[in-house]
Amino acid sequence: MKVTVDFEECLKDSPRFRAALEEVEGDVTELELKLDKLVKLCIAMIDTGKAFCTANKQFMNGIRDLAQYSCKDALVETSLTKFSDTLQEMINYHNILFDQTQRSIKAQLQTFVKEDIRKFKDAKKQFEKVSEEKENALVKNAQVQRNKQHEVEEATNILTATRKCFRHIALDYVLQINVLQSKRRAEILKSMLSFMYAHLAFFHQGYDLFSELEPYMKDLGAQLDQLAVDAAKEKRDMEQKHSTIQQKAALQDYSSDDTKLEYNVDAANGIVMEGYLFKRASNAFKTWNRRWFSIQNNQLVYQKKFKDNPTVVVEDLRLCTVKHCEDIERRFCFEVVSPTKSCMLQADSEKLRQAWIKAVQTSIATAYREKGDESEKQEKKSSPSTGSLESGSETKEKLLKGESALQRVQCIPGNAACCDCGLADPRWASINLGITLCIECSGIHRSLGVHFSKVRSLTLDSWEPELLKLMCELGNDVINRIYEAKLEKVGVKKPQLGSQRQEKEAYIRAKYVERKFVEKQHASVSLLESGTKFLPQSQEEKRHSGPEKSLLAGEQDVVSQKAVAVSSDEARRESLFCPDELDSLFSYFDTSSKLRSMRSSDSGIQQSAGDSREHLASTISANSLYEPEGDKQESSVFCDSKQPSPGLQLYRAAFEKNLPDMAEALAHGAEVNWVNVEENRATPLIQAVRGGSLVTCEFLLQNGANVNIRDMKGRGPLHHATVLGHTGQVCLFLKRGANQHATDEDGKDPLSIAVEAANADIVTLLRLARMNEEMRESEGLYGQPGDELYQDIFRDFSQMASNNPEKLNRFQQSDSQKS
C-alpha cells in the first residue's frame, strides 16, 4: 500500500502524522525483509545455475569423448561433435544469463537496501531523538512557576529552539519517506525488467542456435530411418548365416569331425595350416599346454595369444622329419624332429593328426622346390668372376643398398654355403668369427660357448649396422684360409652334406677350439714387409705440432696394470631416458643443425681435408705411442722382431684396420686385451680407435675386448674416441657399456673433453647416456633395455656412423681445413 505523509501535518505533529509515520515505518521494515529474501533467493538460483552449467559441461565433454572414440564412424563422430558444440554454446548462454541476473537482481536490490533504506533508518533515529527532546522541553516549560522569571525565560528559550530543530528534522524525515516510497517502485521494476530482458536474450540465442542446427537434425533423422532399414536387413542376413553355420556344425558333430581339415600351400598370407595343438614342454615335468600352431614361411610356429609374437619351433622345415608317436600314453601324438631338437605335439583327433603330418610333409617338399628354383636363378645371375677384384667392388656397392641381412651377408665370397659343411643357403652366422653357418652347424657352434662362437640368425634377429659391416669385411673364404690352412697337410677330410652330426661336431671343435688346422708359423707380416717404422717424436716436433697434435700425442692413457690380457664380463648398462633433460637434447639438435649448415659444400676440399686429417691422426698416433729417449731412436717393439707375437700382430692390425690379420692373430692365440708395455700400455682396442675404424672396434668387442681397460694416462677407448672426435666409436662404446665417469690423470672424463672440443654430437651422446643411467639408477630399472627415444637416437647414430660416416666428420674436416 502506498503511504504518503503530508508536510503540513508534520508541522502540526498531529496524531494523524504520528499514525502515518508508524504505518510507513512498518511498511519499510517489511519491504526490507522482502528484498533481503529476494536477494538470497537470487544468489541461490545463480549458484544452482552455475552447478547446472558445470554438470552440463561434464555431460558435453562425455559426448565429445564418445565422438573421439567413434572416430572410425564418420556419421557418429560428426553428429556428436556438432551436438557437443551446440551444447557448449548453450552453456555459454546460460553463463551470460546468470551474470546478467546477478547484476540486475542481486546488485541493484542490494544497493537499494544498503543505501536508500539505510538513509531512511538514519533519518528515523534523528527524528525520534529530536521528538523526545521536544517532549522534554514541553514538560519542563509547563512545570516552571510563574514567580520564577529567570526559569520561565530559560524554559521558553529551550522550547523555542527545540521546536525549531524538530520542525527541520521532521520535514527532512518526511522528505526521505516520500523519496523512498517513490524510488522503491522504480528500483524494483527496473531490476526485474533487466532480468526479464536477460531471459528474452537467452531464449532468442537458443532459438537461433537450434534453428541453424535444425536442417542437419532433419537430415540425420532421415539417415537414421535408412540405418534402421539396413540394420533390419543385416539382422536377417546374420540370422540366416547363423542358421547355416549351425547346420554345418550339426553335420560335423554327426560325422565326428572336429575341424575343417584343409591346408593350402599357396595361401596368400603364407599360412599353410593353422589350429590348436597340445605341446609337451621341455622341462622336467613334461607338462602339456594348448597353443595355436601354424605352418608359415617354411617354419612351424605357435603363439599363446593373438598379440604375442610367434615362437619359432622349427626354423627350417627342410631339415626336419615328422612321424607318428605311439610309445606314449596320450593319443593322437606326433613328433617333429629337427637336427637340434624335437617337439612332441598332440592333435584332438586322428584325422587332425593325419592332416598336420601331411601338411608338414607337403611344406617340406614345397620348400625344397622353392629353394632349388632360387638357387638356379642366383647361379644364372652370378658372374663367373665372383672372386675377382671387380666383383668385390660390386659386392661393396650392394652393401650400401637396402637388402636384408641375409642378402647382404650371403653375397660375400664363400658365404653362400656353410663355412664348415658346405650346405647351401646358410641362415645363421657366427658374429665374432664373421662366417655363415647352416642350422645344424650353428647348433654345434652354440655348444662351444660364446667365448668361441656367438651365433645369430640372419633372418630372425635384428642386425646393427656395424655388425653387418663386420660380417661383410670377413666371410667364409677369409676365415677358412686361416682356420683350414693345414687341412690338407694333416689329412683331415672336411664334412660334407651327408656327414653325421658327430663327425661335424668333432671337426668344428678341432677347427675352432683346438685350432689344429691353423698354420703355426707366419709366412709374412704385412706391417713389416711394408717397411713401416714408428719413430718417436722429437722435442722440437712436439713444440711445433700445434694444439691438435699435442692433444693427440697426449692421448695415450692407461691403468697401471701388468702386461697381460684382462677379460671382462661387465654387462652392458642400459638406461631409461630422463624426461627432465629434454632441453639439453633439443639444444643439441639445434647446435648440430647449425654446425651441419656450416659444412663446406666443396666436396673436393672436404675429401682432401679428410685425407689430411686421417694421415695426420695416423702419423701422430703412431709416433706418439712411444716415450722418446732421443731424437732419432727407433722403437724396439716394431723393429727388432721380424716375426711378432700374436698379441703384437693383433695390436698392429687393429691400427691398420686389417680384419683378416686380426682374425689370424686371434687364431694364433692372441689375447684380445693384450697390453703393449712399450707404448703406454695401450691395448688393441685403443689402437683400433686411433686407426679410426668402427668395424675394427666392433670385431674386438665381439671377441671379448674390455671396453674399460685404460692406458698409463688413465684413458680408455672412450677417452681416445672422444679426443679424436670419432662419434661412431663413442656411440659404439656407450652401447657396449663403457664407463664414461672414468677420469684420466688430468681429472677429465670424456664429457668434459667433448665439451672443451665443442663436439655437439659426442656431447649429446654422452649426456644422453648419463641421463639415462641416472634415471635407471633412481628408479631401480637395472637391466632394462632403455626407452624408445634413447634407442632411436643411438640407432640413428649407429646407422650414420656405418653408412654415412661423412656426416659425423664435420669437426675433423673443419679442423683439417683450418690447418
From TrEMBL:
InterPro entries: ACAP1/2/3-like (IPR045258), AH/BAR_dom_sf (IPR027267), Ankyrin_rpt (IPR002110), Ankyrin_rpt-contain_sf (IPR036770), ARFGAP/RecO (IPR037278), ArfGAP_dom (IPR001164), ArfGAP_dom_sf (IPR038508), BAR_dom (IPR004148). Gene3D superfamilies: Ankyrin repeat-containing domain, Arf GTPase activating protein, Arfaptin homology (AH) domain/BAR domain, Pleckstrin-homology domain (PH domain)/Phosphotyrosine-binding domain (PTB). Transmembrane segments: none annotated. Keywords: ANK repeat, Cell membrane, Coiled coil, Endosome, GTPase activation, Membrane, Metal-binding, Repeat, Zinc, Zinc-finger. Residues 383-392 have a biased composition (Low complexity). The keyword Lipoprotein does not apply. GO terms for cellular component: endosome membrane; plasma membrane. Its main location: membrane. It is found in: Cell membrane; Endosome membrane. Residues 403-525 form the Arf-GAP domain. GAP activity stimulated by phosphatidylinositol 4,5-bisphosphate (PIP2) and phosphatidic acid. It comes from the Eukaryota. Residues 369-382 have a biased composition (Basic and acidic residues). PROSITE patterns: ANK_REP_REGION, ANK_REPEAT, ARFGAP, PH_DOMAIN. GO terms for molecular function: GTPase activator activity; zinc ion binding. Residues 270-365 form the PH domain. It is a peripheral membrane protein. Residues 117-147 form a coiled coil. Residues 369-394, 535-556 are annotated as: Disordered. GTPase-activating protein for the ADP ribosylation factor family. PANTHER family: ARF-GAP WITH COILED-COIL, ANK REPEAT AND PH DOMAIN-CONTAINING PROTEIN 2, CENTAURIN/ARF. This is Arf-GAP with coiled-coil, ANK repeat and PH domain-containing protein. It comes from Otus sunia (Oriental scops-owl).
